[in-house]
Design a protein that fits this description.
The protein is of the alpha/beta class. The chain has one domain: 3-Layer(aba) Sandwich (Rossmann fold). It has a seven-stranded parallel sheet with strand order 3-2-1-4-5-6-7, sandwiched between helices. Helix 1 crosses helix 9, helix 3 packs parallel to helix 4 and helix 4 packs parallel to helix 5. The longest helix is centred in the middle third of the chain and has 29 residues. Bound molecules: nicotinamide-adenine-dinucleotide. Nicotinamide-adenine-dinucleotide binds next to helix 1 and helix 6. The site of nicotinamide-adenine-dinucleotide has 29 residues, from helix 1 and helix 6.
Length: 274
């Protein structure tokens, strides 16, 4: 897709990666809608975008379809049809064992990170399909490919984003609408800073080393722009995580041995008795 003059709607537009997306799409001459539950931060991002970038800010709580309808109407009234939807808003669970996570906290995480993405798709995908063009970018995480202990609920939410995106890509391709999934590793943002809180208290030197390794969000934005232009399914910005993803897939592939039921699909099915 060519992006000049197109409208790009970014959820979590007031956050670090949202700002990186906005900068990169604005660099291509797109019109930017920064949608966030935190209007103040979205306005700050809008103020930092280069002069001349066509930008607007809208209030959006991704968990509410009513809020989506209002934000969509505002965006369309000013900038016309949305051609690119970036479902990027998300929250972290913080590092802790799953059993220490309260049910309400788990529900909220899923409501924002998973239902929020579904709500965005529900609000825009049908119209994109009817027009025969458009693109949806969903932000997952490296934790959506390679989970680790103490981040279970967050990983579950980001695996859900991948499953949803891959399936949606198949559904929308015949209608001319593309779907890509972004899998960031550690990237400079308020979320990343928040997750560093405990490390900072326990070991400031380690926190400083981690901070120094955070990627700058605009590079993620540029990778997303290239993926939208080329309709690429996956956007990997941090190749340093490849080893852990490979190790996980190798374990999964190694589990594909003989069928559990002898003779299954070979025509000589054994019965449950033997
Ligand atoms: N920063 C990282 O290292 C990293 C790594 C992997 C994935 N991610 C993902 O990237 C996305 C962006 O995160 P970020 O790092 O820029 O964090 P961030 O905290 O800077 O930005 C997230 C934004 O989402 C907004 N938001 C939260 N709840 C919302 C809601 N209900 N409705 C609308 N907006 C809401 C916040 O106000 C915030 O502005 C998230 O989905 C996150 O899970 C981030």
């Amino acid at each position: 897709m060519q992006l000049q003059g197109k409208t790009v709607f970014i959820t979590g537009g007031g956050g670090g990666i949202g700002e990186g997306l906005a900068l990169a799409f604005a660099g291509k001459g797109a019109k930017i809608v920064l949608a966030d539950v935190n209007l103040h931060e979205a306005e700050n991002v809008a103020a930092r975008l280069p002069a001349g970038a066509e930008t607007m800010v809208v209030a959006l709580d991704v968990t509410s379809l009513e809020s989506w309808a209002q934000a969509k109407a505002q965006a369309e009234a000013r900038f016309g049809a949305v051609e690119v939807l970036c479902n990027n808003a998300g929250i972290s669970s913080g590092f802790k064992p799953l059993v220490d996570m309260a049910p309400a906290e788990f529900e909220r995480l899923m409501a924002i990170n998973v239902t929020g993405v579904y709500n965005g798709i529900l609000s825009f995908a049908r119209e994109m399909g009817a027009r025969g063009h458009g693109h949806i970018v969903n932000t997952s995480s490296m934790n959506g490919l390679s989970p680790f202990g103490s981040f279970a609920a967050y990983s579950a939410s980001k695996f859900a984003v991948l499953g949803l995106s891959d399936s949606l890509r198949q559904e929308l391709a015949p209608l001319g609408v593309g779907v890509s999934t972004l899998f960031p590793g550690l990237t400079r943002s308020r979320m990343a800073e928040g997750d560093l809180g405990k490390v900072e208290a326990a070991d400031p030197a380690r926190a400083a080393a981690i901070r120094a390794n955070m990627m700058e969000p605009v590079w993620l934005g540029r990778a997303v722009v290239r993926a939208v232009e080329a309709n690429a399914p996956y956007i990997i910005t941090h190749p340093d995580y490849k080893g852990s993803v490979e190790a996980r897939f190798e374990e999964i592939l190694a589990a594909f041995g003989e069928p559990a039921q002898p003779g299954y699909k070979t025509g000589a099915k054994a019965t449950a008795q033997g």
